[in-house]
Structures
1.
Amino acid sequence: MSPRIRLPSGWVTFLFTDIEGSTRLARMLGAGYRPVLHEHRRLLRHTLVAADGAELLTEGDSFFVAFADAAAAVAACLAAQRALAGHDWPTPESAPRVRMGLHTGYAEPRDGEYASPEVHRAARIAAAAHGGQVLCSASTVRHAEPLPAGASLLDLGLHQLRGFDDRERLFQVLAPGLEREFPRPRTADTPPHNLPTRATSFVGREVERIELRRLVADHRLVTVLGAGGAGKTRLAVELCAGLVEAYPDGVWFLDVATVTDPGLVPFAVAAAFGLRPEPGRPIMDTLVEYAATRRVLVVLDTCDAQPAATAAVIARLLTGARGVRVLATSRESFGLPGEVVWRIPPLSIDPSPGGGESDAVALLLDRTTAARGGRRPGPGEVVDLRRVVHRLDGLPLAIELAAARLRVLSAGQLAERLADVLGALDAGRDEPDPPRPWSGDPDATVDLRADLPDDGTRSTVERHATMQATVTWSYRTLGPRSARLLRWLAVFAGPVDLAAVEWLLDGDPLGSLSVLVDKSMILAEPSASGCMYRMLDPIRAYAARRLAADGEEQAARDRHVAWSQHVLWRAYFGPDGRPVNLSLYSLDPLAGEFRAALRWSATGGTARDGLRLAAGLDLWWRERGLAREGRLWLFRLYGRIAETGERIPEAELAAAYHMHSLHAGADGEFAEELRFAQRAEAAARQAGDAGLLARVLAGRAAPLVDMGQFVEAEQVCREVIAWARERGVAGDALLAVFSLAELLWRRGALDEAAELLGSARTVEATRPVERGQRSVDMLLGMVALGRGDLVAAHEHLQVALRSRMGHGYHGRACDTVNALAVRCADGGDPLTAARLFGAAQATRARIRSTPGLFGPYWLRWQTELRRVLGDAAFDAGYRAGAELGLEEAAALALAVEHPDLSPASSRFTSSW
């Protein structure tokens, strides 16, 4: 460092930067690394020095810079990241990915350097970041207000930095042009595992757990083999939950069944580790390098879904990383060197040595109690339950199915059916003639050639050896009507009511449905609104294969898409066909069904049906933090259009593009937001529908706001509103009215904003989709806060929050909770304000919602609250709020006393 550089003192913001994967980049580029490093230094030095940063140290690929102004430091980081991203590097792979960490603390320089723990804290924050990411401490956030235009903060929660005993709240700086999605920060309190949470109790398997634990301790690759439903996953997860302390670098779980393409298996394993792909480098190299110096246990479940790809990943990990051990579950072994294959046995059906029930009976007792709503089977039933587990050979999933049957059968009835195998096969048939096992006749009820051994026979044990055989065994008992119902029910993704089943088949299915419930192929689950019918996933997969094999898939799935459109339409329109207030809660239970219908529309159905479904899910996706999912579905539907050449009306394309633009903006993809906004406008103009064009044009301001072009956005809003009024479609420009009101509020034009909103109230009231959002009341509440009118603010915001929570607008409800936090802070209740801010931020982080235009306002008030309360009290209140769910936070906000009822109100002050 030059001695002429004056180092700041007092509250100093320290910045550390370095290149993520610099050693790898240097090896990859060879002689080409030096010019890349030089350009990286030039760009950083140019942006950092321009912001009055004092460069203390440049060593290798690292910078250490001190700033007197925290806001300037944040702006410098954003400028530096944009400069790096926009630079013309020799190749995309040679672009350096720089991580940056900021911390503000009190420090005094001495002899040209700082000797302060604040410097080390900043370095640890930088070390926790990923390439392309800017992290800062809460102290920097407090001192950096206001943030640069367009910038916002994502609260990543409390983290323990390496070498520090306390926990630091870390924030990611968000801004246009910066990458948004990163793995968890690299801190000392990184979770030690990602094992799935167990939804039900684990029963038995003491001997198996001891044996498998010994094998995992002695061997680097242990594969647990067994049929579907044998309990492999549950045993593996239960075992590994007790091994977390033995693996200091973590126990990492991946269900390979969730990976749809073999080439994605190593990427999925990397994601489980918290790793990202590195440009120009195979993902397996990144994986092996990360694991080479660590002691980890990798749990790979359902490996038979992608056996070859999984085997390749395991082989590379074991040969390249000595500290890695792998526990795999599969239906077939890998055949890799050193692999120990352990076949999971059935649950024990013999009484325990201490005289207690066997593991199999204990499991059946536990699940039957749950199936009956907590009512434990009586002593008289236990004898029959023992008979059941003997006939089921102790297979866990068969026992689960038996417990489900006990919803509609007594233990004695079930035991009798299983004791006489032929009688059990004939039970509950809905046809005059009993079904027959396959005997060479292609017209027989079911073709069992794939399930029978060469001699064409099966013992009871063999019949239940696999889940496929168990389901086939049940399927053989079905007559044509019940078998067809089972196949068609496979199109449903989750539980459905009787009306849905009736709609699917366009007839009365009650008789066949009763048969399926009796045979435990469908579970009947009582609910407040009536009985719900659910198919277990293995049975659904079996029925879906039968559906395709019988040539019925197209018809059944098209019918399911039509049903999905029907239930979605009912969310918007009442039985009389009139529009009703949209409640997003009505869509939540059906999310799986809509995804299944969209999947079919994008692969085997029509894209137009998919776009209609997407249009109905537009608000739901954004309010649930699923804007990215909505964008992905739209991209798939565009691909389907290109694949089939299907003709889509311009009006429907315009609506889809407009929705896509809004999703992209909510997801922080601003270039994509602008691109689809332009496409929407072009398609809407082609359609010739003034109302549609007004709705599309009303979204013009959003990309401008996201890019910080507020003056241009305001002008666009005014033009759109005027245009819509001239053409008699003013109501369709309501989004532009709300955007303009927000912009007016932002620059303090409160009277004009209030007047604009007053004229919009009638329009909002006539539009059911917007009515439940109560945007007019929300914005009038913000105007009132700006005026210091706590009475009006309280009343407007409470109305808005009740409506938004009542109709399921969770993203918008977060804004309202934040606004009510301001009302509390301004009204002399800082602790409640801190709790509400913490609750809103926790929900916003959970649903991945950006703070939008109001973000700096919330942050400014939080800074003021911290000043009033002090760090400890503010953090305690904020933390307590973060532990609340959104419903609890809303209840807290709605319980805030009206300003006119407080003791300080003028109503209770004598004027005599």
2.
Amino acid sequence: MFRLRRYRVFLAFAVITIIALYQFSSSSSPWTEQAASRFGQSQGGDTEPQVKWEPKPQVAKETKQFEVEVSAATNPQAKQTPPPIAPVEKPVDKKSTTAQGKNSIPVGVGAGHAARPDATSTPATEEKDRGQDILGALLSSSEEAAHWTKMKEQYPVPTESLIALPTAKAKSIPKIQADFKKESDVEKADREIKLGTIKDVFKRSWSGYKEFAWLHDEVMPVSGSKKDPFAGWGATLVDALDTLWIMGLKEEFEEAVKAVEKIDFTTTHRSDIPLFETTIRYLGGFLAAYDMAGKQHEILLTKAKELAEILMAAFDTPNRMPQTYYFWQPDFSAIPHPASNHVVLAEIGSLSMEFTYLAQLTGDHKYYDAIARITDNLEGYQNHTRLPGMWPTYFDASGCVKHQYNTSPNKPLQKPITAGDPGWDEALKNGAYLKANPSQPLVLPPAKDGSIAVGVEELSPNGKKYIPLEKPEPLKMAPNGPNPTWKPPPEESIDWPGPPNAAPKKRQLAAAGFSSVPEATPVKSMLAAVGFPSDPEATPVKPTCDNPGFGPSSTGGREEYTLGGMSDSTYEYLPKQYLLLGGQVEKYRTMYEVSAEVMKKYLIFRPMLPNNDDILFSGKLLVYAQEPGEPLTTDLEPEYAHLTCFTGGMFGMSARIFERPKDLEIAAKLTEGCVYAYNMTATGIMPEAFEGVACESQKVCTWNETLYNEVLDPNADIRLKQHEEAMANYEIKLKSASLWFDEQMKAYMEATAAPVPVATSVVAPVAEVTKVPDSVLDKRELADLAANRKGKVLRPPQNGSTNAESGPADDEPPTKIATEEEEEPSPSRVMPTFPAIYSPQVPLNHEEYVKMRLEEERLPLGVTRIKAREYILRPEAIESVWYMYRLTGDSYWREAGWRMFEAIETHTKTLHGNSAIDDVTKTSPTLNDSMESFWLAETLKYYYLLFSEEDVVSLDEWVLNTEAHPFRRPKA
């Protein structure tokens, strides 16, 4: 009966719930409509809103995308239909003239580019805005994203000033590829089997991308998810177009070309567009696929031009140097901006091939002009760095900072002049030659005493003598300060901006962007100085930068010079640009050859290895600031990175086209260094970066185990000395603690010792009575105890009698026995504890420490540190292996490349493609669930070309950009 009643309650509750849900779903006024009506909007928008829409000030947001992996979001869930939502249009400020969207104000910019407060926002509307914000958050999904719009150029290049694309007939350039011998039937069958295996790996990766990340940047091959680290324009799709064509996957190629039409380059979830990555992947991918497919798919060239128009907006700066991270939103892009004063070399120096090829395919000179100006500035800066001939990884490209040299962008580099050369005498006349030829270094001969002679007087950057400055007058304090005599200057003496004929100070203030009224607030002044007008209706102040050249980002500290990350493709593009232009621009050859000599002298080294392998690595050179005239202070980090492995191909190709036969040997040893790095790990894959021991000579380099162990354990002596000092301190503490303990123990023993009985001839010793609980005493003992409590004493038995009870003797005083009420508790004492003193741990000796490092860090012999253990499917090593095979025809490179491919496939294979791994030194590395677009665009393409017939993408017909996109070379 009780159970039946309980079920009735549950049944009634279920009926009520069903009725409530039905009423909610059939309601004629959805919750969004009700929310909208609260703020004066009807469902159909026929009635006027009750509250005027006044936008809140826009706030800068976090640039970095917030990504959280939520299992519930990735697991398949049953789809649920949400309640219907009435369409509601967000009111738009009619005064606004720019497109508004979710990201209408760029995020992540510097403090100088803070978002401007909207003029229509007032404290009176704060409460209304709060409610409107709530409604806007509810309806944010219906907002349209901001779109890039082409603005009027702030710093246009006149048509007559454009640097024209060279159109003359290409020069005759030496042959690059080797003459290959005919392969046997067995060799052909083996090669085709390997070619098919590589193609299958590509198809698996492409299928994973198509199924899980179509039109997104990358697929996550382990989880089957997607991500958009670039602009969300389908990086893998565009990057792999030419690989699809080369591998003969024509159906997949046609499908991908159709998908390209859906890409909208005018909007992205990012607030900025990375110019370098977008150029090499997207622009290069479109152009290569368009040309390789016979120029039949016009949509590819159209998309390339659409993207190029957006990228060209990044060049709209005072010196026409690009913003390498272009903030594209209309509200920000409409404001004049200079290029960065802290650019990465590779990001600004690796745009030349793509824009040149676009100019060649379209005939539009503006694309070539954009990158030719970068080349001119690189040329002008090349011999003025701390390491003349190379460029640091970071430098100033803004043109707004005065440098201590005058660049001659259009003047080619020249060899140094020495005593006896033409112009030597002129060079010593008042420094006239140096000022007229800043790009030509001067080498002065040493004097007889060995010192360096000085041929000209010490000059300032403007060519004048240095004159000591006079001591300035004492500063006057502001009002209310320590100087009571201070008075403000008369108002008419203050220089504020005025007409064009105003005083120089006025013009300077105006150029700096300060407001034209004395009452201007500091905030307005600062905003105006960076391009924001103090008046919303005013025209932004353009930054004025009259120095077009490049220069150092800072005058102190150290600079890095490397062929690895942040520099690599700038050097790679010098010989490749020479090929793409048909040898018509000689400066690219000169710039490469000057830099190559510096690379060989300062960066390339032979590592010390157990088997004395004759290979080469390319390290990182740190150059420290020095005063003029002081010797160069450098420090070589014997690092070798996977990114640096491209150098073998660069040196090899350049050795052929520039007829530098010795460099071909260097190219082979650099490539062999990468092959060695693959073979030295447990997985057979090269780590991202590691360090070794550099030998002083590239010719003689003998294994020295003692030296190697010292590099692994440079602090053995320090460690031993520290242990000795710790032991000495330990002995002192131990002795001190022992003395203290002895004293405490002595005091304890004295305080707890039993009283010494006093021997007399009259008083007999009295037995000590121990108090015992009554419950454990027998009757006889109870009687004795009772007598004792009455003030009587129990004496020892005499004359053999027992239990003798008697009072005090007549001849001695009675002994008083204290009762329980009269007893005083004696203080309890605890035995002292010896202080806790720990002896120093015995350190490992030198041999034990070296063994420990080798085992725990899994270091191959010869490697002193693995800086980065991961492998992210990089292509640079196989790139150089392919180049060396095409240059030499030696089958060794095919064998080495196949071992590398098998190792990669074994440890990176997933169900939906291939994944980056966390540690190449593990026997079972962890998959990182990442597959960058260059896995399909470069890595697998190079493996496929290694086993293709040699006329497929011949180096005598094509030149590949840094993303392995082939561009057709002009015919001689």
3.
Amino acid sequence: MRTALTIARRELRSGLRGFWVMLLCLMLGVAAIAAVGLVRSAIERALSDQGAVLLGGDAQYEFTYRRAKAEELSWIAEHAERVSEVIDFRSMLATGTDLADRALTQAKAVDGAYPLAGKLQLDPPVGMGALKGEGGRPGIFLDPILADRLGLEPGDPVKLGGQDFVMMARILREPDSTGTGFALGPHSIVSLAAIEKTPLLAPGSLFETEYRVTLPPGTELATLKRDALRRFEGAGMRWSDRRRAAPGAERFVQRLGSFLVLVGLAGLAVGGVGISATVAAWIERKAPTIATLRALGATGAVIRAAFLIQLAAIGLVGILLGLGLGAGLVFGTSGLIERALPLPVTLTLDPGPLGEAALYGALVATLFALWPLSRMAGMRAARLYRDTRSGRMLPGWPTLMLTGALLSVIVVVSALFSGLWGLTLSSLGGIAVALLILALAAALIRRAARGARHLARGRPVLRAALAAIGGPRSEARPVILSLGLGLSVLAAVGQVDQGLRHAIDRDLPKVAPAYFVLDIQPDQIDPFETLLGQMPEVSKVEAVPMLRGVITRINGQDARKVAGEHWVLRGDRGVTYGDAPREKLTAGEWWPEDYTGPPLASFSAKEAQELGLKLGDTITVNILGRDITATISSFRDVDFSTGGIGFVLTLDPAALRGAPHTWLATIYAPPEAEAQVMRQLAERFPNITAIRVRDAIARVTEALSAIARATSLAAGVTLLTGFVVLVGAAASGERERAWEAAMLKTLGATRGAILASFALRSALMGAAAGLVAILFGGLAGWAVVHQVMGVDYRFALAPALVIVLGGMLATLIAGLLFALRPLAARPAGVLRAPE
């Protein structure tokens, strides 16, 4: 080791010349992972440290579509210092009856104790007392998006659910908004007293009541939770506390952050191609040194150790630069990051994410440097002196075993850091398969270029380009690998985005309703259907009774213990009843008309299969605090992709006799008639909530677009790393280009023809990388749009052309950067130079 250290120290005196590609690849990959990790860590820390603020108290008791009974509220108050009641519901905010004068809002009715934790920031800072309103009308606080959409300023009148309010202020920040999850409309806040006796809280209306509490010092949350669950068993109460105040947000941040880290790891894998090429080129330059060391008696182990020490030192520099760049990007844009997040965060130099990024960088650098290093260290001195090395022999078994061990460590470390084994294995497996297919594609392209040379007779520019692509020192592999992976991610994002937009534009007017209408009271359903029946522009109306319930047990056992965290079991679900099935039965029988026996249920066939249900099983659903245990008598084919009404669970009418409920309706009308339909409904039924399907889809698309932008940004880092690899490959091939240019000039080629040949080979390789990426993007688009979303997929030509042109342009720029000097060299000087 002393000898190896001495050799390494003396070799490092020459500096880092020739290692800038390796440094840049490591720096970019580590920086991307470090930046994502620092932001994710700050958000997770904020979710943990500010649990009481995000929840609105130390603990929360939540009831579905009912308020707590007097004895229940008394028990809650006995175990708390302070209690605040908040009712969350959806409704329509309106300044008139036209479509442009109405907007859906996620409203929150609060009492005088709100907020128990944190501070509500308003503009102007009027305080909670402003909810009392002015001029005999209660006050309302609005999200700035709502205020701008409806053109409202403080003091302007507005209607919420048909009730008169006056806008008092804009909401700048809600302390408890992060834990509320995804909402179809912007938020608004009113006083609880203003809506208590309105139809907004009528029996059967859709709302959730949350009782936030602050607890006496020394209260054990685990003990109180156990007592609360025992006290409210069967009452439909859901418990939350400050330990996990926003589980949905926490889960989303963890998964998105882990996914972006894995995309950053893909960028490191692309950088690994550059690292491998850099190490191979470096060893090739050091061939005389290696030969001399072997001739003087140095063993392969000593040579390998000396070179490993040098690579470790250079890799350490690249990793440290990457950590500095990643931290610099985060803190340099800290203002933008903090304003973009829905909760206050504190960005710090957390050693955890930085250590994770450094570890990934070290593992990937070692993995990709191992093969060229091990191959060259085992070659004989005479072979090196005579320059007959091919560099193609496989490394020995120890190197292969070490490679496998490093791959296993990367997989295990990634899974442990993310905590998501399925996502990690699928993502890393996808990266590995993509790299393998890209390598095979590069081999096929080289073979095709060799086979097509005879077709280029009489076209010297094309023939020279094909010969260079198919030759032994071809740049096809690094080009395809480095560009292909990043372009594949961008192609997939583009195809999915265009596929969904096309499906919406093509299919929505034909198969989806124009409006979902909620909160139709039972005494309103007949005049509601009569009014719509008189409108010639309305093609169809479907209306069904609707309640909301939570499935708590399957065959008498806790439902989540039986079927896990299936989406049907998370939160409450819509429940309906009927004398006849609305969908096709796939198994079992429907209950007879006027059935009055024990409760029976019909379940969606697909979801039943996923939950492991079979005919004769029993399910318990809690509706308005009452447990109903029903036997499954049939399964139905429920197609949720049509955008129409679909219920996972349908009960027989007798099971829900006397239960307060409202009606749900869907209205089918062409886009040009939507405003007229809304105007007449608003005039006749001001209390109903009409959700415009196009607006809802736009809201969902907006959220998905944000994820797509984050993924595209991470893929952009991969592309930038790939471009660095391209430039490195072009730089390492500069001597070969000079020799080729000299030979072609000697044979009579002009500089223009030689330059055209260089440009053509670069463009062909870039186009090949783009075509492979389009294949991946098309498959990903088809899988997501057709298989997952259930709509017809049509290949989007525009993004595909952009990908191909982008690949051609990238390789063209990288190739031409290092083509000018070889063109300027004199043939005599190049051809007479010793090899």
4.
Amino acid sequence: MVYPLNAIDKLGFYEIKDKIKQKCLSESGRELVEKIQPQTRFDQIDRFLRQTSEFKDLLVNDGAFPVENFFPLKSIVEKARVEGAFLLEEEFFRVLLSLKTVYAIIRYFNEREGLYPNLEVLFEHLPIEKGIIRDIETVIDERGKLKNNASRLLLEITQQIQRAEQDVLKRINSIFKNAQDSGWTADGNLTVRDGRLCIPILAENKRKLKGLIHDESATGQTAYIEPEEVFQLNNKIRDLEFERRREVIRILVELTDKVRPHLPLLLSYHGLLTKVDFVRAKALFALDIEAEMPELSKEAEINLINARHPLLILNEHHKGTVVPLNIQIDQLQRVIVVSGPNAGGKSVCMKTVGLLQIMVQSGLLIPAEPTTKVGVFKQIFADIGDDQSIESDLSTYSAHLSKMKYFTEFANGRTLVLIDEFGTGTDPLFGGPIAEAVLESLNKKQIRGVVTTHYSNLKVFASNTTGLENASMLFDNREMRPMYILQIGKPGSSYAFEIAQKIGLGKDILEAAKGKIGVQQKKVDTLLIDLEREKKEVFDTKVAINKREKELESLKSEYLELQSYLEENKRVILKKAKEEAQEIIKNSNKLIENTVAQIKSAKADKEKTRELRSNLDQALKAVLPKEQAAKQVIKEKITESSELTVGDWVQIIDNGAEAQVVEIAKNNLILAMGELRTVQKRKNVLKLEGRENKKSAKSLSKSLSAGTVADFNPEIDLRGMRTEDALNELEKVLDRAVMVGYPSLKIIHGKGDGILRKFIRDYLRKYSHVSRFEDEHQDRGGDGITYAYL
């Protein structure tokens, strides 16, 4: 399907597979990765992509996936198949751990039934046979060793050995003490020689102690003797150990016989572990390159949106600087002819298209927008690099022509053709026309593809031929540097003279070179450069206009917001002023009515009436007319609202909440609501009257801070939590740490696959109050714990 076979290597697909292998936990998983090849069946590709996408979502958004123990079971099963053979303790222990992992995985998906339908297919109809685990656990302990009570006889033998060893130790200690008292022993304590406990005796005294000499010191001054009395006891222990070993083998053979009927099921479990390891590795790699699942199409088409080369993303030198690629290949725009300067990104553009196509058809997610659309091609033909061969007597150009011959014979409408530096390797006078003829032949076959070239005749041919489309890699001819942006619709200049001038090639040489090229070619190249310059100016102008439009839109939004705020405040203040004015008028009416009533009660006495009228005049002078009162109230309210001080109580207009001003910074207010702090613009609050303010503000701030710091725990444990829940909890603790002024925060997230750690650290990078973060010391948790400094 891919021709030639080394094209996959030249596109970088083997490097991709190596990166995925590093994510595998088992050798069988790595073997599966090695077998990855582009597929042509739509349903198969779709299933592989969806499985990887579901596992990626699982790793990011769901609980921790059980991957504690991945041991290969296939070799163990093959060994157990042989009648009379038996598995060792450590082999049974591996089977036990692997089975526990298998059952944990099955339970994990059963608890989430329907959430990951494509992953559930991996273990569909696979039963849980707990009897195997019970049989093994009756014999093997949690350390992987045979239990002493695995059988009654084994327990008896073990106890006899323990008693005999105690007798030996007791007896030899007594003999050693007597030898020490007699002055026979050398410096040192009891020692082991040839697996036997011996007493160090001075060489001149070795005949005084009856026993077997097992060894001597290097100087010959010390002999290591096993006393005769102990010798018989040790032989008894040795016999018991042989008997114990026979019983252990009998137990293991019996256990192997019990497991043998379940070997086909164990092989199925092995297959499940291998597939899970394989899909998990693909999902982890997808997270590393920030990959998404594209829309899969049954048509022979490609529409890459913000696509990036995965190997460039992983390259530390290019990390964060990879320019995204946007390219569309379909029925109308079948072949893209890319031109432009050297080192401008033409080859990377073509390789990105080829590599991402191979990745998709191999079931791998790609670093592009989810709206990217990728079709399925039956064949992928690529001519990249120099394939000259001494053995085959092929020059560089001959190798290119051999591929062109194959392409023109076997390509069709479901073939993706990738050709780098089309037509090079021979005299341009002849290479250009041959390349044009080949391109014309391929175009007639309705192939899809990307071709890079410097030949002007191919650019002209592409502009005049249906199905072919010129494209260029943008070049900043002022800064004399490539921009790595693909522009569809026009060819690009090679900028040969400009690049040579920047490098420092002599002016006389450049002038001589310009005189040697054809007048027509010079005009074409100059025209392309002028077009590029004008295009760049138009592009820069468009960017500036867009920026200005965004600024105007922002100003308009602020104006409308301010206008709305003023209208709202105007209504509130007017309403309050009217109410106060009405209250004043009401009080005035009461005063007049009281005066009239008093005059009546005085029976219109002149002196009394004069006095009451005088009092009424004085009272009315103190009361302003309704309109003046309203205006005065409005003026006072506006003044009061604009003159806020620390300690004032205010009402937040948006939600009606009341808060106290703790700090004022230009147009921003820091408000306290109980133990919570919030920042509001001055225009978003109204001052409240009639509350005790100024004295309590600072004490409130101090008491809040002291109380909050005392209650605050600068350590958070996020292990086992889903990514979204973990980030929510982290945000709460970070906000509180900033509020109380805490200098650092200890975040425990564990190691595992590193997914949770990655998302936590990405979040910390975006959190403005975090100055830096680092791993805990290796002895205290290493990269399983992050310290964030605020």
